[in-house]
Design brief:
The protein has about 950 residues and is mainly α. The chain has 37 helices and nine strands. It has a nine-stranded parallel beta sheet.
Length: about 950
C-alpha cells in the first residue's frame, strides 16, 4: 500500500527474445497498476483510519515477508508481539486493509490478463482467440469446413453454473470492483486529456473509498432465490451476448472456405444451471423455489429479447419505397397491432412491433415479469419456434433484397440468442441424493403392496419390481394415502418439472441427476418417479435424461459395470433410445478426492472413463460425460483446456458438460472479454479432443500399471492419515476454520450432510476450503511424495527416469503434476505450523503435523525432480510472480486469523472477534482465488 508494494525483480536477467520482452513489459504494466491501486488504498486507509493504522499495516507486511521467506523465528516472535498488542478494532482495520489489497490486486491481474490476451489476438495472423488456432490446426490436419459443420451439429459444450458456497464476496463489493476494472480498462484504451486523467483518478479514488466503506460480509444468509439472482447477473455481464457472438464468429470462420450456402451453424454452446434445482442436501430447494427459479430465468431472457427488439425497431427504419421487401415480410407487417402513422411506410418496424407485442403476451402467459409494454395486443407465441420463424422472415427479406450487412447486425445476434436460450434461458438440472429417492419409492411401494418391505429387498428383487412398474399403466401414487412430508416434497418437485416442460419446453429441465448413485435400482427408482408425473411413458419413451452421478472411489470403480447392466436392461435401454441413444454420466471429483485423496481420485476418474467408453461403444450408445469439477485442485479444479485434452480417448466425443462453481464463476465470467475467452477454451478443447486427437490418450500398458501402483500407494498414505489415524478428526477441527466457515452467509446449503464431526459426513467444499485457509491445501497433494518414494524403492530398475518419461509423454500425468505444482506454490508450511499450534493436545499436534510436514517436503522434492524444475511454478512465470506478489498481503491475514481463532475459542464474548475471523476468511480466499 505504498510505492514499495511490489518486490523488485531488478536482479533478474534482461530478456532477449521478443516474447520475453513482451512478458517483461506486461509485468511492468501490471506492477504499475498494482502500485496505483495500492497507493490509492493506502491513501484511503490513512485518510479514513489515521497514519498510525497505515504505519501498522506496513510494519506487519515487512515482518511477514521476513517470516515467510526464511521461516525467521525472530520475525515470528516480532509478528506475534505486534498482533498480541493490537486492540480488536485495530485488528479489524488491519484485516480489511490487507483483504482489500488482495481484491484490488486481483483486479489488476485480471486487467493484465485481458491486456495480454488482446496483444496475442492482435499479433495472431489467423485471427483472434484460441478457437481460431484450433480451427487452423483442424484445417492443417485435413478436416474440411463441411466436416467441422457436421461435428458441431452433433456437439454439445455446456458450462453448468452451480451455487456451491465458495464465493465469499458480496455482489455489492463485486459491483464496485467491476467499476474499478472498467476504469483501468478505459485508461488503457483511450488517450485521456489531462482533465480526463484527473477525473479518472478521482473516480478511482471514489470507487476505492466506497469499497472501504462497504461491508465485505453479508449480514444475512442467502436464500436459494438470492443465489439464483446472483447467478443470473453473469448472463447480463457475459452470456446473453457473448454466447451468440462466439457461435456466429465460428460460423463466419467456417464460411471463409466459400461455403456460404451450407446453412447456419448449429448452436452447440448451451448454458446449464443447478441453482434452484439442486436438492441434494439442501432442504430449501422445493417445488415452489424451482418454479420461482424458472420464472426468474425466463424473465431475464424475455426482458433481454424485448430490449433488443426495441433497439432493432429503431434501427430498421427501412422505407418500403426505397427498398424492396419480401411478401412474407409484408404479411408479417400487416398483422402488426402498431397503428402509428409514423411507421406506416416502414414494414420492418411494423413487423418488429408485431413480434414485440406477441412476445410481451407470451411473457404474460408464462407469468414472468417484464418492464416493457407493447404498442398493441398480440397473440402469445405457442413455442420458441414460432418466435424464431418470425425473426427468420426479417432475415430472409433483408438477405433477398441485398441488405445482408444489415441482417448480420443486431438481428443476427438476436436470432442466435433465441436459438441458444429459448424462453428458459438456462437448462436447469434437478438433482437429489439416491437415498431420498430410495425412501420415497419404498413408501410408495409399501403403501401400494401391503405387507411388502421394499427396503428389505435385495438388488435383483428391486430391479425386477421397478422394471415391472415402469411397464405398468396404472399410477403408483394413490390419492387416498397420506404420505410423509419428504415423499410429498419429492413428488411435488417432479410434478413441477412436468409443468416446466409444458410451460417452457423440454429444454427447461432436460436432466435428472442422481447423487451417490451406487446401483441399477437407484436409476430405476428415478425412472418410476418420473413415470408418475408423465415424463416417462410406459411405452418406453422419456422426456428427460436420467443421469447417474458416481462420486466415491468405490462407486467410480463400479460405474462401468453398473452402466453395462443398465444398457443391457431392455426396459431402460428403450428410454435411452428414445433420447437419441445418448446417455449422460456424471463423475464427481470432490467426494472422490475426500474419500481417496488427490492422486487416487484423479486416477480412478480416468480409469472410470476408460471403462465407460468401452461399455458404451459395445452397446452402440453415445456417452456424454458431465464433469463435476470444483474451483480448487482438491475438488477437480485447474485449467479447463488441459483437463479436457487430458481425457482418455473417446471420453469427449463431441459432447461435454462441466460445472462452474463458486468463485470460479465470477473470475471467469464477470468480464465479457474474459468470459468469451473461457467459453472459447471449452469449445476449442472439445473440438481438439474429439476430432484432432480422439485416441491420443491411449498410454502404454506399463504407464497404466505404474499409475495403478502409485495410486494404491498414495491412497494408502492418504487414508492412513485422514481415516486411520487416531485423533485426526480432533486435529482437523482444532487446526482449521471449519467451525467458523459455517458462520459465513455464503450459501443456502448446510456444511455437513449429518450433524456429526466425522470426515465422511462433511461436505467436500468446507473440507477443501478449510485446508486452503490454513495454507496447507492438503487435499491437493497429500500422499504423492511418499507414493513416489516407495514406488522408486520397489522399482529401482526404472526409478526416476521412468517417471520423468511419464510426465513428458502422458497428458494425464502431466496435468496431475501441473495442478499439484500450483497448489503447493500457494501453500506455506511455516504458516500452517501456526495453525497446528491451535491443537491443544501437544502430542497429537506433533504426531500429525510432523507427518504432514514430512509429506509436504517429500512431495515438493519429488515433484520438482520429475518436472525438471528448480522451484515451484518455474514453468509458469506469470503465475509464479502472481503468487509471490500476493504473499506479503496474504500472510498477515493468516497470522491475524490464528490470533483471532485463539480469542474466539477462549470464549471472548466480543462479537467483533468472530467478525474479524470472517473478514480474514474473505481476504485469504481473495488472495488464493481458487479455494473451494
Amino acid at each position: 500500500m505504498s510505492l514499495q508494494t511490489i518486490p523488485s525483480d531488478s536482479a533478474e536477467p534482461r530478456p532477449n527474445r521478443p516474447e520475453d520482452v513482451q512478458a517483461t513489459e506486461a509485468e511492468t504494466r501490471l506492477r504499475d497498476d498494482i502500485r496505483l491501486l495500492g497507493r490509492i488504498l493506502g491513501d484511503t486507509v490513512r485518510d479514513q483510519e489515521g497514519a498510525d493504522v497505515f504505519d501498522l499495516v506496513e510494519r506487519i507486511r515487512q515482518t511477514s515477508i521476513r517470516f515467510h521467506r526464511d521461516e525467521d523465528r525472530l520475525a515470528r516472535r516480532e509478528l506475534e508481539q505486534i498482533l498480541d498488542g493490537m486492540s480488536i478494532p485495530d485488528t479489524l482495520r488491519i484485516v480489511r486493509a490487507f483483504s482489500y489489497f488482495s481484491h484490488l490486486a486481483n483486479i489488476a491481474e485480471d486487467h493484465n490478463n485481458i491486456r495480454q490476451m488482446r496483444a496475442r489476438s492482435a499479433s495472431r495472423s489467423g485471427g483472434a482467440g484460441v478457437l481460431a488456432g484450433t480451427l487452423a490446426n483442424a484445417k492443417s490436419a485435413g478436416v474440411s469446413a463441411s466436416e467441422l459443420r457436421k461435428f458441431f451439429k452433433g456437439a454439445l459444450v455446456s458450462p453448468v453454473l452451480t451455487a456451491h458456497p465458495t464465493e465469499v464476496r458480496r455482489k455489492s463489493t463485486m459491483d464496485r470492483e467491476m467499476e474499478v476494472a472498467a476504469l483501468l480498462d478505459r485508461r488503457e484504451r483511450v488517450a485521456l486529456t489531462p482533465e480526463e486523467a484527473d477525473a479518472s483518478d478521482e473516480q478511482l479514488r471514489r470507487e476505492v473509498l466506497t469499497l472501504w466503506q462497504t461491508n465485505l460480509l453479508r449480514r444475512t444468509k442467502l436464500t436459494v432465490l438470492d443465489e439464483v439472482a446472483n447467478g443470473l447477473s453473469f448472463y447480463d455481464y457475459t452470456f446473453l451476448r457473448e454466447v451468440p457472438r462466439l457461435v456466429n464468429a465460428l460460423e463466419d470462420r467456417l464460411e471463409e472456405g466459400g461455403e456460404q450456402a451450407a446453412g447456419e451453424l448449429a448452436s452447440f454452446l448451451r448454458m446449464g444451471s443447478w441453482i434452484g434445482g439442486d436438492r441434494d442436501g439442501n432442504p430449501f430447494v422445493t417445488a415452489d423455489v424451482m418454479r420461482g427459479t424458472l420464472r426468474l430465468q425466463s424473465s431475464r431472457v424475455m426482458q433481454f429479447y424485448l430490449n433488443e427488439l426495441h433497439v432493432l425497431g429503431s434501427e430498421l427504419s427501412i422505407a418500403a419505397h426505397l427498398a424492396d421487401v419480401s411478401e412474407e415480410l409484408r404479411n408479417l407487417a400487416e398483422r402488426s397491432p402498431d397503428t402509428s402513422p409514423h411507421r406506416s411506410g416502414e414494414p420492418y418496424r411494423l413487423a418488429v412491433s408485431g413480434i414485440y407485442a406477441r412476445l410481451t403476451a407470451t411473457a404474460e402467459m408464462l407469468e414472468v415479469e417484464i418492464t416493457r409494454r407493447p404498442v398493441g395486443k398480440g397473440a402469445p407465441y405457442g413455442s420458441v419456434r414460432e418466435l424464431q420463424a418470425d425473426l427468420d422472415v426479417l432475415h430472409r427479406s433483408l438477405i433477398s433484397n441485398n441488405a445482408r450487412v444489415i441482417a448480420r447486425g443486431r438481428l443476427r445476434l438476436l436470432r442466435r440468442a433465441v436459438d441458444c436460450f429459448g424462453f428458459h434461458l438456462a437448462r436447469l438440472d434437478i438433482r437429489q441424493n439416491s437415498a431420498v429417492h430410495e425412501r420415497t419409492i419404498a413408501e410408495l411401494m409399501d403403501a401400494a403392496n401391503p405387507g411388502m418391505s421394499y427396503l428389505a429387498l435385495g438388488e435383483d428383487a428391486r430391479i425386477s419390481l421397478l422394471t415391472n412398474e415402469l411397464r405398468s399403466t396404472r399410477a403408483l401414487v394413490s390419492p387416498f394415502v397420506k404420505y410423509s412430508d419428504e415423499t410429498m416434497g419429492e413428488l411435488n418437485v417432479f410434478h413441477a418439472a412436468a409443468e416446466a416442460h409444458a410451460k417452457f419446453g423440454s429444454d427447461a429441465i432436460p436432466q435428472c441427476i442422481i447423487s451417490m448413485c451406487k446401483g441399477m435400482s437407484d436409476m430405476l427408482e428415478v425412472a418410476v418417479l418420473l413415470k408418475e408425473v408423465g415424463l416417462v411413458h410406459p411405452s418406453g419413451r422419456s422426456a428427460i435424461n436420467i443421469v447417474p452421478l458416481f462420486e466415491t472411489i468405490e462407486d467410480l470403480q463400479a460405474s462401468s459395470g453398473i452402466m453395462d447392466r443398465m444398457l443391457s436392461l431392455h426396459d431402460y435401454r428403450r428410454l435411452v433410445d428414445s433420447r437419441g441413444s445418448v446417455q449422460e454420466v456424471m463423475l464427481g471429483y470432490s467426494d472422490s478426492n475426500k474419500d481417496g485423496g488427490f492422486v487416487t481420485s484423479g486416477w480412478e476418474l480416468y480409469k472410470a472413463e476408460i471403462g465407460l467408453v468401452e461399455v458404451f461403444e459395445r452397446h452402440h450408445v453415445r456417452l456424454r460425460l458431465f464433469h463435476g469439477r470444483g474451483g480448487s485442485v482438491g475438488r477437480g479444479g485447474g485449467p479447463s483446456y488441459d483437463a479436457i485434452i487430458a481425457q482418455p480417448g473417446g471420453a469427449v466425443n463431441g459432447q461435454i458438460r462441466i460445472t462452474e462453481q463458486g468463485e470460479i464463476i465470477s473470475s471467469k465470467y464477470s468480464n465479457a472479454e474474459v468470459g468469451r475467452n473461457n467459453l472459447e477454451i471449452l469449445a476449442a478443447a472439445t473440438l481438439e479432443a474429439s476430432l484432432l486427437n480422439p485416441r491420443q490418450s491411449a498410454p502404454r500398458r506399463e504407464y497404466l500399471t505404474a499409475m495403478d501402483e502409485l495410486s494404491n500407494l498414495a491412497f494408502k498414505a492418504y487414508r492412513g492419515l485422514v481415516y486411520e489415524t487416531d485423533g485426526f478428526v480432533d486435529y482437523f477441527w482444532a487446526s482449521t476454520v471449519i467451525n467458523e466457515i459455517a458462520t459465513l452467509n455464503i450459501g443456502s446449503r448446510p456444511a455437513s450432510r449429518k450433524k456429526t464431526r466425522a470426515i465422511e459426513d462433511l461436505r467436500a467444499i468446507p473440507w477443501v476450503f478449510s485446508w486452503a485457509q490454513c495454507r496447507l491445501m492438503l487435499p491437493g497433494w497429500y500422499g504423492f511424495g511418499s507414493a513416489v518414494e516407495q514406488w522408486i524403492a520397489d522399482h529401482p530398475e526404472k526409478g526416476m527416469p521412468f517417471l520423468k518419461e511419464l510426465y513428458k509423454e502422458w497428458p494425464f500425468f502431466r496435468m496431475l503434476l501441473s495442478n499439484m505444482d500450483m497448489v503447493l506454490a500457494k501453500s506455506s508450511i511455516a504458516i500452517a505450523s501456526r495453525y497446528a499450534e491451535l491443537v491443544p493436545d501437544e502430542a497429537l499436534r506433533e504426531k500429525i503435523f510432523g507427518r504432514i510436514r514430512r509429506e509436504w517436503h517429500s512431495c515438493i522434492e519429488t515433484l520438482l525432480d520429475i518436472m525438471g524444475q528448480d522451484r515451484l511454478l518455474q514453468g509458469n512465470p506469470l503465475l509464479e510472480r502472481s503468487v509471490r506478489h500476493r504473499f506479503p498481503y496474504l500472510d498477515p491475514l493468516n497470522h491475524v486469523q490464528v490470533e483471532l481463532l485463539r480469542e474466539h475459542r477462549a470464549q471472548n464474548p466480543d462479537e467483533q472477534v468472530l467478525r474479524g475471523i470472517q473478514l480474514t476468511i474473505n481476504g485469504i480466499s481473495a488472495g488464493l482465488r481458487n479455494t473451494g
